[in-house]
């Protein structure tokens, strides 16, 4: 054989253009039928990608059932590597794992989950997905993977906001609020990631961490501040957490690990979460928590929900048979107090009066959320609301600022 003088691979004749297009079209069809890894061509290869992928710029590998994970990995790699070599770069990385600790049947857990059913949703369009639809799906998958990694990497943080007695200014409790310290978007509030956490089941491990960290932090403050022995902390429970079989055990373990009396924790539950099906599991968990001594706050009174558009509290449900320690009035009620006095109070007045009457009947404090102005505060006091929470008193603070805030209001730290 004659050596190649330039020490390069010998040239290979290029197939005809029609042959290349035929092969690319066949590969594209196979990737759509066999194949969830989203891929987009780099800018340098977009023109050729358009010619070889006449029906779209994104290939998706979708696996609906698999028993051999190693074979599955090899199969996915066999499809991705040739695409990579032919000028198509993976657009992101998707890691999937079986959710643990939810205790929910598969149908119940995945029902209505847009991420888990995204392939079926797009294939049901009867057409190739649009660029906007594909981008939304890729963004959602990326967000889920980043949120999963944030939980492991410690990028979730807690902020604490005080609940204040309106007459005395005394701190009634601290609400623990979860935030996500995102690597590129900054500090994200719950509206940016909690709905996704609910839909994907990540709310269960996130909620477990919030519970554990809140108990630990409150125990530290009780040890450092002389007047914090009676201070409570509140955490929110979602509908999925309420139905989790491991909820009560995790709470008991958190109390033991922190050395915190269960009576110092209050769980906030709204009626919509409590009355979602299956209700029996939520009721058992809440009764077990209250048996441990955990307090119960019924949240978002005044917010319309299915079956109760008026927002007025209805005591006919099982939730009100539990030992409620606090009721919290939806922030929309306080917001309706802004503006002309008569008009504002006429909108919010009936709902607020019903909530205050219910709290008085139960013998527990009512807390108005979203108090931001002195005008709102004055009207709430005039209408007889005993407690409030909102930016007027304090914004959500990190642990260090919260401790300084408590020290100013509760007294100096113990020596040593």
Strand content: 15-25%
Report mean pLDDT, rounded to a whole number: 76
What is the distance, rounded to the nearest whole angstrom, between the alpha carbons of the first and last residues?
87 Å
Helix content: 40-55%
- The CATH superfamily of the largest domain is identified as EAL domain
What spatial order of strands do you see in the largest sheet? Answer: 4-5-7-8-9-10-11-12
How would you characterize this protein structure?
This protein has 416 residues and is of the alpha/beta class. The chain has three domains: 60-90; 106-153, no CATH class; 157-410, TIM Barrel. The chain contains 16 helices and twelve strands. Strands 4-5-7-8-9-10-11-12 form an eight-stranded mixed barrel, surrounded by five helices. Helix 15 links the parallel strand 11 and strand 12. Helix 8 (203-224) packs parallel to helix 10 and helix 10 (247-258) packs parallel to helix 12.
List the helices and strands and how they pair.
Blueprint: H1 17-34, E1 38-40, H2 46-52, E2 59-60, H3 69-85, E3 89-90, H4 106-110, H5 118-123, H6 131-153, E4 156-165, E5 171-182, E6 186-188, H7 194-200, H8 203-224, E7 232-236, H9 239-242, H10 247-258, E8 265-270, H11 271-274, H12 279-292, E9 295-301, E10 324-329, H13 331-335, H14 341-362, E11 366-369, H15 374-383, E12 387-389, H16 399-410
Parallel strand pairs: 5-7, 7-8, 8-9, 9-10, 10-11, 11-12
Antiparallel strand pairs: 1-2, 1-3, 4-5, 4-12, 5-6
């Amino acid at each position: 054989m004659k050596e190649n003088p330039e020490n390069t691979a010998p040239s290979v004749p290029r197939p005809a253009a029609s042959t290349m297009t035929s092969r690319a079209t066949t590969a594209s069809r196979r990737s759509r039928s066999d194949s969830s890894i989203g891929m987009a061509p780099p800018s340098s290869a977009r023109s050729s990608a358009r010619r070889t992928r006449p029906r779209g710029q994104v290939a998706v590998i979708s696996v609906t059932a698999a028993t051999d994970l190693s074979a599955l990995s090899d199969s996915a790699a066999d499809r991705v590597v040739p695409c990579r070599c032919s000028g198509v770069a993976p657009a992101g990385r998707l890691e999937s794992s079986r959710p643990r600790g939810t205790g929910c049947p598969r149908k119940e857990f995945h029902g209505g989950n847009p991420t888990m059913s995204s392939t079926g949703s797009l294939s049901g369009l009867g057409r190739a997905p649009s660029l906007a639809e594909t981008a939304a799906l890729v963004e959602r998958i990326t967000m889920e993977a980043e949120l999963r990694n944030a939980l492991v990497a410690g990028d979730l943080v807690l902020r604490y906001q005080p609940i204040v007695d309106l007459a005395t200014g005394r701190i009634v409790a601290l609400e623990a609020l979860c935030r996500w310290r995102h690597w590129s978007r900054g500090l994200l509030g719950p509206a940016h990631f909690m709905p996704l956490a609910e839909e994907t089941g990540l709310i269960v491990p996130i909620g477990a961490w919030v519970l554990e960290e809140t108990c630990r932090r409150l125990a530290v403050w009780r040890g450092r501040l002389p007047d914090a022995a009676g201070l409570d902390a509140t955490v929110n429970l979602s509908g999925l957490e309420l139905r989790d079989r491991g909820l009560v055990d995790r709470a008991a373990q958190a109390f033991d690990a922190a050395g915190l009396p269960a009576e110092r924790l209050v769980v906030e539950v709204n009626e919509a979460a409590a009355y979602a099906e299956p209700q029996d599991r939520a009721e058992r968990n809440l009764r077990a928590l209250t048996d441990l001594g955990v307090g119960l706050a019924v949240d978002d009174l005044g917010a319309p929900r299915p079956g109760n558009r008026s927002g007025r509290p209805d005591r006919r449900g099982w939730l009100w048979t539990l030992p409620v320690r606090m009721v919290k009035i939806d922030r929309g009620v306080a917001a309706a107090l802004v503006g002309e006095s008569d008009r504002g109070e006429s909108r919010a007045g009936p709902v607020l009066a019903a909530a205050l009457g219910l709290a008085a009947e139960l013998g527990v404090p009512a807390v108005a959320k979203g108090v931001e102005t002195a005008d709102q505060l004055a009207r709430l006091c005039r209408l007889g609301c005993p407690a409030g929470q909102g930016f007027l008193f304090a914004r959500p603070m990190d642990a260090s600022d919260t401790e300084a805030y408590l020290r100013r209001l509760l007294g100096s730290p113990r020596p040593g």
